[in-house]
Amino acid sequence: MLQEIYEQPEALAATIARYTQTGSLNADSFLKIADILRGRQRLVIAASGSSRHAGLAGEIMLEDFAGLAVDVEYASEYSYRSTHTLHDPGLLVISQSGETADTLAALREAKARGLATIAITNNAESTMAREADASLPTIAGRERAIPATKSFTTQLCVLYLLALYVARLGGRMTAQTVSAHLEHLEHLPALLAASLEEWEALVQDIAEKTRSARGFLYLGRAIHYPIAREGALKLKESAYIQAEGYPAGELKHGPNALVSPDAPLVVLATRDDEDPDSLLRYEKTLQLMRDMQAQGATIVSIRTEGDDEALKLSHYSVAVPAVSEFLLPLLEVVPLQLFAYFTALLHGVNVDKPRNLVKAVVTE
What is the DSSP letter of 53? Predict the structure, then answer.
């Protein structure tokens, strides 16, 4: 797992190279996507586990960048939903292996309904990639550890690129704006590579200091909420510790009863200084941290480099480089992966092969 965490800069760089050329999107890499999505206003994303969390982040990217109305389904529930919930949507399935039984069933059900389909998988020769109308592979290389790391971040990357492509296709974004977004994305692997060793040492220390915690609540707003859910899933599957991911604004609507010094909060408190909506979410998150600090909660934060306010409100904190709002998830999830890894080691868990789990769920 640790090796694959460290392979993420390379995997992201390879995935970016697959879909771009000299500062623009490579149209050949999006073959058939234009036919599937041009003029379409609705999209359903069906996925399970970590892939579904990537889909939840993709929902926000596609809605904000491209103007699509997106509904994210559990793949295991899709086939049982009414056929009339959305009229003639496209269906996007996401799966690391491309063989996940529930997700493959959702793809086949969509095709039986006559819907256009897209697959994001880490295997361009997988069943889903072959059966979908269009395939958008991640270039993560083989992922052997059961907890998803590099497959997850490359899924986020492909969804970001897809959102830019659909935004350009629909006339919602100029070529110059797309180019600017791509320039920021292309810098991201180097930023991640430069941070990993520092994060490893810092997160190992945080894991040791919180090893006696009986549970964790992970909190994030907007596109950071799916990352909170992903961080909680990583801890559950890797270390066998109860953790839940919530929208930060929902904490006081019940889950706050669980908060205590030995049930820490993991708060995603990053910000994009160029995005007014991001700054508003950040300020609301800071206020929640103030309230929780007064309540006596133990707070672990993921913050943006140079942010002293979030640091002051945290018992433990990890800083990530300053990038744009929709690229922050690709950075902030990595310390959460490391936290799950080191917490698992401290609890004597074989992190690469957690109990009761398999890499690809190929039977329902």
Answer: H
